[in-house]
């Protein structure tokens, strides 16, 4: 209820600021003001509208998919528009004050209350927002590129490749064709194992049967390992634990194993923010990690990257995480990094443990990415002499 209330308040505030800025200081005809206001309100409340239409089952699956994607694109445009308006107005006002202080003639032309200047500036920011949104949609819907990460360690005697598909966020509107191409590209890399570190899905199992049949086509040499992210908890963690096992994936629920005769041990837990992280729970995680063969390279999977700070450096060599999406749409980078203890994307060294945070192969909300490209991560463990 708190999340819903905050979302409504933010949506209303953002709508008022955007509408007032674009229509409140011009002589625009009322009909145009009404249409612009309607589009902006619809954009900011698009997530609620999509959920409402889905629950009413007013549209067939294909039509609903197009409607949902369009609605979230409008939401993304409104978000980008507001960000650009705020940045533009801050820079505009600062430049005007500076030029006025220096008594420059240009100050009159930059007067923020000049209706002609406002109209031109508004048109410019709308065009820039739409162009940026088109680019962001392209980035958000294209097939992720490979991201190669090489880690040298004396604990392995031959190369071992881990493919990471994080934050797919599969839902009823997810394109089966696009998902199939992601699976095919992952298989083409011929990884030893595939790791799905949470937020694989964004729906109940019955709603994504077609997509799960496609995901089942993953064919690494030794198996697919999966754990839960926060979104699996929203749609029934026990249901998804059962579904993943029935799909043939190896579920990491504070469990681990070394199943292929290689000197690599993998363990993991569901999103730790939904577990009771007391001393007893930490002891349980350490007990699981202690089951690794002596001298094995130990990989730990946690959807939330910040859990790495709770790991014993003597028990884990690498943590694989997701969740942040790399910020997905700038300037969310700043919020995502702040909310995850300074971790955003890439390879980190935390108290002697390597941490890799994937930007993800999918996305949530608007099908957009801006300065946060999606990725199919290939972590190559390579032999290194002492």
List the helices and strands and how they pair.
Blueprint: H1 2-23, H2 30-44, H3 46-56, H4 61-101, H5 106-109, H6 115-141, E1 145-153, E2 160-164, H7 176-188, E3 193-197, H8 209-215, E4 224-227, H9 230-234, H10 237-247, E5 250-251, E6 255-257, E7 264-269, H11 279-289, E8 297-302, E9 318-321, H12 332-338, E10 346-350, E11 353-357, E12 375-383
Helix pairs in contact: 1-2, 1-4, 2-4, 3-4, 4-6, 7-8
Word description of this protein:
With 386 residues, the protein is α/β, with parallel strands linked by helices. The protein folds into 2 domains: 139 residues, no CATH class; 239 residues, Metallo-dependent phosphatases (Purple Acid Phosphatase, chain A, domain 2), CATH 3.60.21. Helices cover 45% and strands 16% of the residues. It is built from 12 helices and 12 strands. The model has no long low-confidence stretch (mean pLDDT 88).
CATH architecture verdict of the largest domain: 4-Layer Sandwich
Distance between the termini: 55 Å
Could you say how many structural domains there are in total?
A: 2
Q: Per CATH, what is the topology of the largest domain?
A: Purple Acid Phosphatase, chain A, domain 2
Query: How do the helices and strands follow one another from N- to C-terminus?
Result: HHHHHHEEHEHEHHEEEHEEHEEE
Q: Could you estimate the helical fraction of the residues in percent?
A: 40-55%
Question: What's the average pLDDT?
Answer: 88
CATH superfamily of the largest domain: Metallo-dependent phosphatases
Strand order of the largest sheet: 1-12-2-3-4-5
Largest sheet: 6 strands, mixed
| DSSP E strands, number | 12
Structural class: alpha/beta
CATH class of the largest domain: Alpha Beta
Instruction: Give the count of helical stretches.
Output: 12
Inertia-based shape: globular
**Strand coverage percent:** 15-25%
Task: Tell me the radius of gyration.
Answer: 24 Å
């Amino acid at each position: 209820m708190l999340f819903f209330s905050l979302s409504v308040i933010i949506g209303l505030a953002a709508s008022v600021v955007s509408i007032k800025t674009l229509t409140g200081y011009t002589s625009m005809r009322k009909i145009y003001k009404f249409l612009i206001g309607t589009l902006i309100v619809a954009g900011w409340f698009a997530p609620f509208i999509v959920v409402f239409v889905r629950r009413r089952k007013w549209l067939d699956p294909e039509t609903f998919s197009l409607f949902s994607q369009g609605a979230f694109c409008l939401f993304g445009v409104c978000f980008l528009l507001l960000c650009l308006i705020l940045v533009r107005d801050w820079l505009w006002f600062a430049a005007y004050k500076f030029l006025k202080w220096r008594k420059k003639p240009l100050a009159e032309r930059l007067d923020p209350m000049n209706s002609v200047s406002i109209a031109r500036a508004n048109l410019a920011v709308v065009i820039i927002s739409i162009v940026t949104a088109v680019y962001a949609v392209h980035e958000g819907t294209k097939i992720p590129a490979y991201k190669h990460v090489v880690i040298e360690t004396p604990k392995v005697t031959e190369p071992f490749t881990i493919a990471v598909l994080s934050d797919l966020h599969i839902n009823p509107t997810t394109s089966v064709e696009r998902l199939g191409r992601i699976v095919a590209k992952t298989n083409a890399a011929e990884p030893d194992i595939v790791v799905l570190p949470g937020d694989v899905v964004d729906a109940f199992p019955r709603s994504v049967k077609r997509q799960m049949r496609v995901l089942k086509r993953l064919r690494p040499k030794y198996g697919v390992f999966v754990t839960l992210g926060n979104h699996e908890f929203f749609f029934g963690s026990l249901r998804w634990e059962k579904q993943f096992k029935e799909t043939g994936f190896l579920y990491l629920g504070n469990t681990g194993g070394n199943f292929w005769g290689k000197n690599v041990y993998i363990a993991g837990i569901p999103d730790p923010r939904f577990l009771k992280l007391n001393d007893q729970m930490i002891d349980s995680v350490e007990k699981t990690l202690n089951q690794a063969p002596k001298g094995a390279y130990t990989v730990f999977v946690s959807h939330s990257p910040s859990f790495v700070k709770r790991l014993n450096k003597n028990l884990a060599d690498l943590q694989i995480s997701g969740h942040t999406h790399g910020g997905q749409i700038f300037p969310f980078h700043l919020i995502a990094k702040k909310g995850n203890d300074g971790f955003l994307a890439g390879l980190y060294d935390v108290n002697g443990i390597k941490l890799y945070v994937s930007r993800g192969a999918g996305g949530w909300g608007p099908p957009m990415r801006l300065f946060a490209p999606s990725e199919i991560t290939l972590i190559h463990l390579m032999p290194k002499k002492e």
